[in-house]
From TrEMBL:
<keyword id="KW-0732">Signal</keyword>
<protein>
    <recommendedName>
        <fullName>D-alanyl-D-alanine carboxypeptidase</fullName>
    </recommendedName>
</protein>
<feature type="signal peptide">
    <location>
        <begin position="1"/>
        <end position="26"/>
    </location>
</feature>
Amino acid sequence: MRVLARAAAVLAATATALLLATTASAQTAPEHDPISTPAAATASALVTKLSHSDAASRLRSSNITWSSSGGCSDRTRPNCTSFEQVNLATIQGAQTLKGATGCALNVTGGTEVGHASGTYSHYNGYKLDFALSSCLTNYIKGTFTSIGGNQWRSGSGNIYYLESDHWDVTYYNCGGC
């Protein structure tokens, strides 16, 4: 009987010590933003998707405009500019770019069909196209690192690709938002 009582006391003390250690480490552990610092294996599971109206509202609040050759926002039509299912970090990246450059930004491509496929594609919410402007071009070329092939990498790792008539930007993160 004494052995059982002693074993129970040791178990109780061990459980209390574990509980205190767990609580202490939980209180001192830094918080992680799942959008900008996901573990590599879980990045896709932690991406926050936005509706077209929510993304448009966020862009509007930062004075970022958008246009469409078809005058529409239907994701299933390639001549529309849609933000349906765009990543939150992509929209925040555009907002960060606007704040850093002070340039007028006009989005000409979003998540609509008709762009190249791939994991980090327009359709999957990682890319936006911006209309060319000397302000934007001068900022990108003067601030980011040229990596060849008409591409520049920002300090946060986002890629800016100068195509013939627009900037194609891949947002892996929000760019320090």
